[in-house]
Write a structure and sequence with these properties.
The protein is α/β, with parallel strands linked by helices. Helix 3 runs parallel beside helix 4, helix 5 packs across helix 6 and helix 9 packs antiparallel against helix 10. The protein is built from 11 helices and 10 strands. Strands 1-2-3-4-5-7-10 form a 7-stranded mixed β-sheet, with helices on both faces. Strands 6-8-9 form a 3-stranded mixed β-sheet. Strand 2 and strand 3 form a beta hairpin.
Amino acid sequence: MSSASDLIQVRLENRIKTITFNQPRKKNAISAAMSRHFLDAILSSRDDESRVVVLTGAEADFCAGADLDPSLMQGGFDVTEFLRTTYNPAVLAMREMNKPFIAKVRGSCVGVGFNFALACDIVYASDTASFSQIFTRIGLSSDGGGAYFMPERIGYHRAFELMATGTMIPAAEAAQLGIINRMLPDAELDAAVDALAERLANGPFLAIQHTKANLRTGAAGTLAEALDAEAVHQGVNFRSRDFFEGVAAFLQKRKPQYKGE
C-alpha cells in the first residue's frame, strides 16, 4: 500500500511502514507543506497495520533540515505556532507511540532532519552519513527536540559544544559517541534495516510495545515508577498467547511463530 504526497512517500507492506522524505534535489530538506504531510504519516501510524516504522530519505541523503523559504522571513510567519503544530506533535507521537521507529540514514542528516532521526528508537547509518545540529550556522537555535535528544545521548557539555558550534559529525564519530546505533557500509545499509524491521515486525509485538513503554517510563520517571510499569506490563504479557508460544517453542527447540497477541 502506498499513499501521501509526492514529497512524503509512504509505503506499508508486511506490517512495515516506510516514510520517505522525497525532495532529493534539495537533499530532502523538509518544507512547510512536507512537514504537514509528515505529521499526517506519523499520526496515521497509531491506527494502521504497521508494527514497525522506517524513516528515511530518497536517494543519497536523509534530510538536510528545513527547506527555508526567504518569503517566510518577510511575511510575519509565526514560527512558534508552526513548530507547535507540525514538528512538535510529530516528534512527540514518535516517542509516545508504542511502535519501534527505525531511522535509515545516508548522506546529509542535519538540523531538524537530525532530530527526526534521533526521535526514532534505533538509528542505522551508512558510512556516507554526516550529522549536525546546524542551526547556529544560520543564526537559529535548535528545534525538533535537539535540546532533549543530544544531552540524552551524549551529556550536556558535549551536546552544548556540538550544538553551539554546528559541528559536522561523520558517521564513524557519531557511532563512537553513541549518537547512532550502528554504522554500516553504504551497500549493506538497506539489507541491515530490512532484516531488523522484519525481525521486529514478526516478533512478539505486545512485548516489544511494552518494552518501549517501560523504557519511556524509566527515562522520565523514578526507579519505583519504572518497576511498577514493568510489573503491570509483565502481567499482561504473562497472559498473552505470545508468551505461551515463546515458552512452547523454547521447549520444543523450534522458532516461535508470534501473532502479536
